[in-house]
Every structure is written in C-alpha cells, then in structure tokens.
Amino acid sequence: MSVEIRAHPKFSSRIDRLRLKRIVQKTVRGEKTPASLTIYITTDAEMHKLNRAFHGTDAPTDVLSFPMDNGGDIAISYDTAKRQARDAGWRIADEIDLLAVHGILHLLGYDDVTPRKRAKMWKRQEAILGRKING
Fold it and tell me: Of the residues 1, 67, 94, 135, which has the maximum number of CB atoms within 10 A of its CB?
C-alpha cells in the first residue's frame, strides 16, 4: 500500500501528514484491501471546479473520491473542513481524518445515498476513528 499526502501551498504547513497517513493506513488495513491512495488537501475554489467538472454540481464540497485500479485519489477542502470542525466542536485535523476515511470508504464501495447505507457507512467511520460522529 502506498499513500501520498499532498496539500495546496496555502495549507501545506498546517497538515499533519504523519497523522493523516496513519488514519489512511488504518482504514485500508481495516477494510482488508491493498490500495494506493493520494490525498490532496485544497481550497473550496478548487473543490468547486472539481465538483463541477466531475459531478456536474456547481458548488464546493468537503470531499471527493476518484476511483482508480487498486486505489484512487481523494480531494479534501481545507476551507470546508475548518468550518465543519468548528461546527462539530473538534479540531480541523479530526475533521480531515473523518473526510479522508469517508473518501476511502466511498472508493471501497460504501455509499450514503439512502438512510440505511448512510447509517452503515457512519458506523464504519466511527469504528475506524474510535469516536461518535454527529452527521
């Protein structure tokens, strides 16, 4: 398994790459799947462009997953993570961990389009992160 953590220069010094790499590895090991992943932390503006280009949604979002053979790429908005962390009452690093796990689970086939699927996905995220998620 290989994990690459990249960050927009605006946020590069604020990302705890070792922490993020550990949660990514824990998620992949827990799902018993070998994967090569790139996690990219970026801005709302860039996420808006990606969301429009790949999903046809003209708005920023918190996390996007792009599947590839044996893994994929995950883009996370630092701006949105910061807002969501404040709303949840935890650190930005905690929110980025959650978004990385969420993105990986999407790559592995989890979905959150129905209440039942969402509950299953949230339960798995909570197990990986070791804490309750109010989502």
Answer: 94
Q: Whole-prediction pTM value?
A: 0.93
| Residue given tokens 């992949």 in the structure block | 28
d(CA 18, CA 60): 26
Tell me the three-class secondary structure of 12-45, residue by residue. Answer: HHHCCHHHHHHHHHHHHHHCCCCCEEEEEEECHH
Quote the CA–CA distance of 27 and 88 in Å, as a whole number: 22
Helices (H), 60-91: 78-88
**From the CA atom positions of the chain, what is the Rg in Å?**
14
Residue 121 sits at φ, ψ, to 5 deg, of: -65, -45
123/102 Cα distance (integer angstroms) = 11
